[in-house]
Amino acid sequence: MSLAKVRFLLFYAAILSCCGAVSQGRPVVFGPFKGMRSLDNGHTSVMRDTIKAKAWIEAMVREMRGQEVFCSDCRIAEPAINDAAGFERISYRLRDHVQLAFSNGSKVEVRCHSSHQDPEVGDVTLAMDTEGLVFVNFSHICGGIVQFYDSNFSGEPGGKPVLPKDAGTFFSKYLCDTDDAGWELWKPAVRH
Fold first, then answer.
1. Is the pTM of this model over 0.85?
2. Could you tell me which residues come within 8 angstroms of residue 189 by beta carbon, excluding any fewer than 6 positions away?
3. pLDDT at residue 127 greater than cutoff 90
4. Edge-to-edge strand order for the sheet containing 134-137?
5. Which residues, listed in sequence order, are joined to residue 38 by a DSSP beta bridge?
6. CA atoms of 102 and 47, how far apart (whole Å)
7. 3-state secondary structure the chain
8. Is pLDDT above 90 for 134?
9. Residue 24 CA, distance from chain mean position
């Protein structure tokens, strides 16, 4: 293999790595890097084929709603609590298929799809509460993990972060730490 080809392959591998910078936030519309964009923090997110992403979401929603027992095969994702002065924070690291449980008894089932599994579906985190409401987040999933943190904690001296009491609090206050994007209520397309 020629030295030029080795250099190109090393360069290409660096570009395709999760945390490689590609285009300073602008979509790449040409060549082998088409469909990629770099977030301000250096993480790369793959722009998804919206038809394939919607199909994956709809298939997962059907599967989640078709369960006899809510999230029976899920492990519970425990919150990470950092109470060190000046760095107070509560966050949830989510991977694959997990459940969140809250103090009022409500639960959330979460499913993650990384662009590394299928770039055309892209990065999708899907969540359904025990009432059947479905929320979606399209933030980058790096290394199969996505992390959400409490965006409303003020960090006042002596203040302590508080665990979300219910699913509604989680969906309204927790943002993805990759790009600070929140959850959106999923509204399936109306079929005629």
1. no
2. 54
3. yes
4. 75-76, 97-101, 107-113, 124-129, 134-137, 184-185
5. 44
6. 33
7. CCHHHHHHHHHHHHHHCCCCCCCCCCCCCCHHHCCEEECCCCCEEECCCHHHHHHHHHHHHHHHHCCCCCCCCCEECCCEEECCCCCCEEEEEEECEEEEECCCCCEEEEEEECCCCCCCCCCEEEEEECCCCEEEECCCCECCEEEEEECCCCCCCCCCCCCCCCHHHHHHHEEECCCCCCCEECCCCCCC
8. yes
9. 21
Q: How far is Cα 19 from Cα 181, in angstroms, rounded to an integer?
A: 18
21 contact partners, CB below 8 Å, separation of at least 6: 38, 42, 44
Residue 18 structure tokens:
């999760």
CA distances from 122 to 28, 58, 59, 125, 165 (A): 15, 14, 15, 10, 31
Among residues 145, 134, 117, the alpha carbon closest in space to that of 171 is found at 134
How far is it, in rounded angstroms, from Cα 77 to Cα 148? 12
